Amino acid sequence: MNKKLLAGLLLGVGGLSLSVQAGDFGEGLGNLAHSKVLENHDGRYNHWNGIGRIMAKGGMHCTATLLDTRSQDSPANAPAYVLTSGHCVEKKNGLIVTDRVVEGEVLFNYFSDTQPRSFALKRINWSSMQGVDLAIIELQTPLSELIAAGIEPIQIARDMPAIGGDILLVGAPLKHGTGYLRLAACTQQQSSDVLEQPWFWRNSVKNQCRDVSEGSSGSPVLLRESNEVFAVLGTSTQGSRGQPVELPEGFPVPSPDSNYGSAMTFLRNCFAKGVLVQDPQECALFPTYSITFKSPVKRYAKIALDMHGQAVYPAWDLRFSLDTPFYRYKQVERAHQCESPHHYSTALPTENARINDAIGLRPGMHLLCIIAVTAVDERPSLGMMRNALTLAVELLPPGPTEAPKVLMKHAGGGYSVSYGQDPRLFSHYSLKFGPPESTDCFDAQGQRKAATSRPLHFPANKLPLKLCTLAYDLNGQPSAVREDLLEKRSAGQQPQPGKTRFSYIGLGDEPRD
User: What's the order of all strands across the beta sheet hosting 456-458?
Assistant: First the structure.
């Protein structure tokens, strides 16, 4: 999505580097210009030496920022916190992590021409991918010791930049240049809710800063005039990443070559005396909850037709448990509506929790919101609503199952056969094969579920043979049968496409392994 990142004002902790132009921490770098590698042998970029590579055990290689959480009454041993993306440490949807011990390190002074400095991680104080993609991680070393060692934290912006405002992105993309810190400049753009299944992010920001790749996740999005951080980079459509969002008509279309992130200026209220506070009245990260799904969470569903041609609408059929005694839910048209307390259900017990309402009566995207509550009469709080979980299902119109998508390649005198795995069209394939003269593709006996995660190989000494393939849609409705004759071939001969013929195998019958 758009790759322009916001930049702005720096309240220089430890003093401004002399080389930084007043009011322009981008040093004249043009918006949308290619990023530039940062070299700091002369200390000119010390104001960014608190941005570096974070590597948590079990997580991903990302970028993280040391936050300036000091106040006048902060104790000398106040913790040091780094900010990164939630998916850098935990990717489970529905889980908000708090106070989890973590192993790993963050490398500050992460410039291409300097020696990085390693500091150990201590605990994940807060991490989530529902609604936002953020993580706050405490280090083993107190903030005062980091500052004494010359590592400069970055302040949290008080306000978001205006649309079109100048911003900066400082991160460490693994696939651009040295893999160390780079600087990019662009402008803040209008953003909408962002869906990258199964995650739905609200309160997102968008830009088109250049040269974002793996490793850029967690990068701070900065106000160009002040160097304050106002957002954290989460995902992108740049390069080979493709478009992380695939939405039907009526939903915002993701922009090519664009970046998306989570706004985090509200975190200014989350620190008191240099410590992260868990009081929901002060910090909108709380209260938290975690949901465990006991049934598969649907991403696609399809309207069926009964024997009379009447529509049969699928249900959510969502079974789950929560770490609170009650929950509420509602269905909405837009994800940001999950953060409104209006129109939620009454408080329901979480024991044997199940939501089985019809997904909808029209094809398209349908959204479900879930919030956790500790008591039947608990009043909604800002944190409760910000932590609402949004689930998305695309409801497909009724219709016949498409023909199997089969790709055949010659391999060592034989054939390699693979199947197209479009989850919107197919739930699975079934197949059988054997001698051409005795294999009846219309006989269900011998059919078995096909493994689509890897190609099938048919060596030359097993040829010729007949391959029979059926595709099944999300309702278990089979396609017409496809027949492929795999013959011994001469040099240069190409595989011939199979024939699709009507199948009499009963509707809803699924061949067993």
Answer: 406-411, 414-419, 456-458
Q: Count of CB atoms within 10 A of residue 364's CB?
A: 16
Strand 406-411, strand 389-396: pairing: unpaired
**Which whole-number Å values give the CA distances from 379 to 316, 339, 342, 376, in the listed order?**
27, 14, 12, 9
Give the strand pairing for 104-108 and 117-128.
Answer: antiparallel
**pLDDT tens per residue, range 99-140:** 999 999 999 999 999 999 999 999 999 999 999 999 999 999
Decide if 430 contacts 437 (C-beta within 8 A): no
State the DSSP code for 449: E
Q: pLDDT by residue (tens digit) across 330-356?
A: 999 999 999 999 999 999 999 999 999
Amino acid at 250: G
CB-based contacts of 379, cutoff 8 Å, min separation 6: none
Q: Which domains does the chain have, with CATH numbers?
A: 36-268 (2.40.10.120), 291-396 (2.60.40.10), 406-501 (2.60.40)
Paired strand residues for 107? 53, 118
3-state secondary structure of 324: coil
**DSSP assignment letter at 382:** H
- Strand-strand pairing, 364-373 and 326-332: antiparallel
In terms of pTM, does the model score above 0.90? no
Would you say 80 and 143 are in contact if contact means Cβ atoms under 8 Å apart?
A: yes
For the record, the structure tokens of 306 come out as 């009964």
Nearest to 112 by CA among 35, 185, 59: 35
- Tens digits of residue pLDDT in 52-97: 999 999 999 999 999 999 999 999 999 999 999 999 999 999 999 9
